[in-house]
Specification:
With 287 residues, this protein is an alpha/beta fold. The protein folds into 2 domains: 132 residues, Leucine Dehydrogenase, chain A, domain 1 (Rossmann fold, 3-Layer(aba) Sandwich), CATH 3.40.50.10860; 141 residues, NAD(P)-binding Rossmann-like Domain (Rossmann fold). 37% of the residues lie in helices and 21% in strands. The protein is globular, with a radius of gyration of 19 Å. The structure holds NADP nicotinamide-adenine-dinucleotide phosphate (NAP). NADP nicotinamide-adenine-dinucleotide phosphate binds next to helix 5 and helix 9.
Length: 287
């Protein structure tokens, strides 16, 4: 691709950003859609997020993604915020508007599009959600907004599970999130669940760990969705499959949160066919 005087810039702010696969997603899309756009990682030091956002605006940057640890902190420097991102309290995409950047959350709709693409339904489901960090909060909002039957929200620190459940139930007006201590997983009702793994346990390099190791738990799981995408086969996924369930990793979620950001920046829609072409390239370049 030729970089010239008309090239627009998008990028990722976070710390660290050196491991990111996002440039591959966005630069592939730009190439395939013949857009004069480049996407680059920007390593931002603690305490400099507001300056980074201001500087990006001054430099005519079209849009930014935001990753850990700045998804909440970045909000203070925005001129506008989308309603969904406001509810979730986390922003991972900034879109240039007249007077600054508008913040969006594409993690949650990205996960939804990834689940639809895998044929996973949420409506009426009984869900076990493992974790109560930033990602789990977005998943809890997604589950409530898609009318699941119930979500059992299990976390090591039960106070965090309780806080997320209270907030999501209040903000969505649906009393569907039930907090539990992770250690109490044996008290789950005798049903078959969709389990969504949103803890950081099992993430590279700790690939030999799963947040729950007991095989009895996995007998209750018909489908396991791990948000982790490094490695592509997690211990959690293996345990689900060993007990006869279907298991998925989080690479498609990563893909679709990127695609939705790209759609917002360029005001276009990316076809499912194109998304799957980019997905193949992501997998081929997987390290
Ligand atoms: P986070 O805010 O740091 O939350 C971490 C969660 O993991 C907390 O619930 C924490 O429990 C739990 N946890 C950590 N160590 C544990 C242990 N030894 N035993 C039990 N629980 C433990 O992280 P996050 O941003 O929510 O991310 C969570 C995962 O989702 C990460 O692996 C990340 O890679 C993945 N993710 C994927 C995508 C994607 O696009 N696919 C997007 C976002 C995140 P406590 O509260 O008790 O500490």
């Amino acid at each position: 691709m030729e970089i010239n005087g008309h090239t627009r810039t998008c990028g990722l702010i976070g710390n660290p950003v050196e491991h990111t696969m996002s440039p591959l997603i966005h630069n592939t899309l730009a190439q395939k859609l013949s857009r004069n756009l480049v996407y680059v990682p920007f390593h931002v030091e603690q305490g400099q997020v507001a300056d980074a956002v201001k500087g990006a605006y001054a430099l005519n940057v079209l849009g930014l993604n935001v990753t850990v640890p700045y998804k909440s902190e970045v909000i203070a420097g925005l001129s506008q915020i989308d309603e969904l991102a406001q509810k979730i309290g986390a922003v991972n995409t900034l879109v240039r508007v007249e007077d600054g950047f508008k913040g969006y959350n594409t993690d949650m709709p990205g996960l939804y599009r990834a689940m639809c693409s895998e044929g996973i339904e949420l409506e009426g489901e009984d869900v076990v959600l493992l974790g109560a960090g930033g990602a789990a909060r977005a998943v809890a909002f997604l589950c409530a907004s898609k009318n699941v039957s119930r979500v059992y929200l299990l976390n090591r620190s039960v106070d965090k599970a309780q806080a997320v459940a209270k907030e999501v139930n209040e903000k969505t007006g649906k009393e569907c999130i039930y907090p539990m201590a992770l250690a109490d997983y044996r008290m789950l009702p005798d049903k078959k669940f969709l389990a969504i793994q949103a803890t950081s346990v099992g993430l590279y390099p700790d690939v030999d760990k799963a947040v729950i190791e007991n095989r009895d738990f996995y007998q209750k799981i018909h489908t396991g969705y791990d948000l982790i995408y490094k490695p592509l086969q997690t211990k959690f996924m293996k345990l689900v499959k060993d007990q006869g369930g279907n298991a998925f990793h989080g690479l498609k979620m990563l893909l679709y949160q990127g695609i939705i950001a790209y759609e917002l920046w360029n005001q276009l829609s990316v076809s499912e066919e194109m998304a799957l072409e980019v997905y193949e390239i992501l997998k081929e370049n997987w390290k």
